[in-house]
Amino acid sequence: MAKMCEVCGKAPVFGNRVSHAHNVSSRRWMPNLQRVRVMVGSAVRRMTVCTRCIRTGAIKKAAR
């Protein structure tokens, strides 16, 4: 499973971890992804979606 939102395409961002002594090593900021049941047309399917898409209503959650 790719660590990417299936709605907006949000993916990990790369950068550096910098210590007080300015030692630099690589790090990643991961998106907050959730597996949710989503209404796609009239069908229900599971999607990996970031919390921003869930909060803004970019998807329609399926009822249990």
Structure description:
The chain is rod-shaped and about 55 Å long. Strands 1-2 form a two-stranded antiparallel ribbon. A two-stranded antiparallel sheet has the order 3-4. The protein is built from one helix and four strands; from the N terminus they run ββββα. The protein has a single domain, classed as Ribosomal Protein L24e, Chain: T. The two termini are 24 Å apart. Helix content is 9%, strand content 44%. The longest helix has 6 residues, at 51-56. The model has no long low-confidence stretch (mean pLDDT 95). The chain has one helix at residues 51-56, and strands spanning 13-18, 24-29, 33-40, 43-50. With 64 residues, the protein is mainly β.
User: Stretches where pLDDT falls below 50 for ≥5 residues?
Assistant: none
Structural class of the secondary structure composition? mainly beta
Subunit organisation of the chains: single chain
| CATH C-level | Mainly Beta
- Number of helical segments with 4 or more residues: 1
Tell me roughly what share of residues is in helical segments. under 10%
How many structural domains does the protein architecture include? 1
Average pLDDT reading: 95
Question: Do you know the CATH topology?
Answer: Ribosomal Protein L24e, Chain: T
Give the strand line-up of the largest sheet: 1-2
**By CATH's scheme, which homologous superfamily applies?**
Ribosomal protein L28/L24
What's the helix-strand series? EEEEH
Q: Measure the end-to-end span.
A: 24 Å
- Tell me about the biggest sheet? 2 strands, antiparallel
> From the 3D coordinates, which CATH architecture would you assign?
Roll
In total, the number of strands is: 4
